[in-house]
Amino acid sequence: MAGWCCFDTALGPCGIAWGDEGIVGSQLPQATPEATRDRMSRRFPALSEADPPAEVAAAIAGVQAQLRGERCDLSAVRLDLRGVSAFHQRVYALSRELQPGQTTTYGELAERLADAGLARAVGQALGLNPFAPIVPCHRVLAAGGRSGGFSAEGGAQTKLRMLALEGAAPNGQPSLF
């Protein structure tokens, strides 16, 4: 059964949507609980708000733990990647290899994709990440360890807060890839 729901975290209310093939999207907090709920209903108009099945409840518990600053590996959460381009899938897969507290840069991810010139495309893919924070785009930084942009509510400040919860030091931190 497909659906979506909102749930509380230390950063505020997040959202998650699911279908038969796994998680179809997740949402970091908006400015208010109502805004998060509105965003979820707009993003997933074909789905209804529902109680999450066990697999989704486990993913929610993992996101809640991660946003409390606990070391939580979400790489086993099943994602429904239908409709996600092959390039974005590769970027998201590499991002999911980063463990809590680890960071890398857009350029380093591009090099791992065999083309250092793709750093901007990597950044764009992460900016469109429909699975934050399950796909931990907040762990990918701009050159020199700068925070770079972040498309979630609160922008780079939210990214820095998430990194701080994980014990990551983004400015000047050496690559862990």
Report what the structure shows.
With 177 residues, this protein is an alpha+beta fold. It has two domains: 3-67, Double Stranded RNA Binding Domain, CATH 3.30.160; 86-166, Winged helix-like DNA-binding domain superfamily/Winged helix DNA-binding domain (Arc Repressor Mutant, subunit A, Orthogonal Bundle), CATH 1.10.10.10. Helices cover 36% and strands 12% of the residues. The chain is built from six helices and five strands; from the N terminus they run βββαααβααβα. The strands form two sheets. Strands 1-2-3 form a three-stranded antiparallel beta sheet, sandwiched between helices. The model is unreliable at 172-177 (pLDDT under 50).
Write the topology of this structure.
Elements: E1 3-7, E2 14-19, E3 22-27, H1 33-43, H2 54-67, H3 86-96, E4 104-105, H4 106-112, H5 119-127, E5 140-141, H6 155-166
Parallel strand pairs: 4-5
Antiparallel strand pairs: 1-2, 2-3
Helix pairs in contact: 4-5
Q: What is the highest CATH level, the class of the largest domain?
A: Mainly Alpha
Point out poorly predicted stretches.
172-177
What is the tally of helical segments? 6
Number of domains: 2
Query: What percent of residues adopt helix (DSSP H or I)?
Result: 25-40%
Order of adjacent strands in the largest pleated sheet: 1-2-3
Instruction: Report the strand count.
Output: 5
Shape: globular
Please summarize the sheet with the most strands.
3 strands, antiparallel
CATH architecture of the largest domain: Orthogonal Bundle
Strand content: 5-15%
Distance between the termini: 38 Å
